[in-house]
Amino acid sequence: MSEYINEIEKLIHLLTYLPGVGPKNAERIAFFLANTSKDFKEDFISTLSSLSKNVRKCEICHNFSNDKICKLCSSTERDNSILCVVEKPQDLLAVEKSGAFRGRYYVLHKLLSPVDNILPDDIDVNGLINAIKRFGVKEVILALKSSVEGEATSILLFETLKSLKVKITKLATGLPKGGELEFVDEKTIYEAILGRKNFEN
Ligand SMILES: [Zn+2]
User: Fold this and answer.
1) b vs e for 71-103, b when ≥16 Cβ sit within 10 Å of the residue's Cβ?
2) Residue 50 sits in the same domain as residue 102
3) Domain-embedded: residue 87
4) Residue 195: pLDDT band by 50, 70, 90 thresholds?
5) Distance of CA 78 from the midpoint of ligand 1 (Å)
6) Ligand 1 midpoint to CA 191 (Å)
7) Has residue 68 been placed in a domain?
8) CATH number, residue 47
C-alpha cells in the first residue's frame, strides 16, 4: 500500500513527467500544491484548463497560437524571403527578442535523437516544405543548437531541402557548444544571425 493518499500520489506521478522534475522534487511540488490556498489552486486549474482548450499549434509554423494561424504567420509586415527554423517556441522568442530577424519561422518541437527513438520520420519536414512554398522563401536559416542532435537534424533538413533551390544557412559560431538557444543572450543571437554562414555538409 502507498504511504500517500490517492490524490497526492497521482499528482506526484504526473509531476514526474515535467522536464527536470525528479521524484523528490515532484513530491515537494505536490505537497506545496496541497498546502497552498484554494484561490491559488483554482487559478492554477483554470489556467491549465484554458491552456488545454485555447492553445494549439499554428497550422503553418507550428508555434503555439490561440488561432489556427498565429500572429507571426498572418502578419503582412514580415519578410517572406527568409525563414528561421528553431527547435522550440522558446527559441523563437529568443530570436525574436534579438531583433536581428524579421522573417518567418518554423518550429520543429523536437530534434533527431535515435537513442530517444526520435527518427527522421518524426521530424515534420513536409510542414517545413509547405511553409517554404507558401511564403516563397528564398533562404532558410537552421538555428538549431550545436549538439549531436541539433547537427544531425540540420543535416537531415539540409539534405531534404536541397532540391528546393533555397539558400540554406546556419548560425555563426560563437554560440555555446550544446547550448540551448533560449538561454543565449540577445546580443550573441543577434551576432550569430547577422554572421550566418552557408550550410555545408
Ligand atoms: Zn505560425
Assistant:
1) ebbeeeebeeebbbbbbbbebbebbbebebbeb
2) no
3) yes
4) confident
5) 12
6) 25
7) no
8) 1.10.8.420
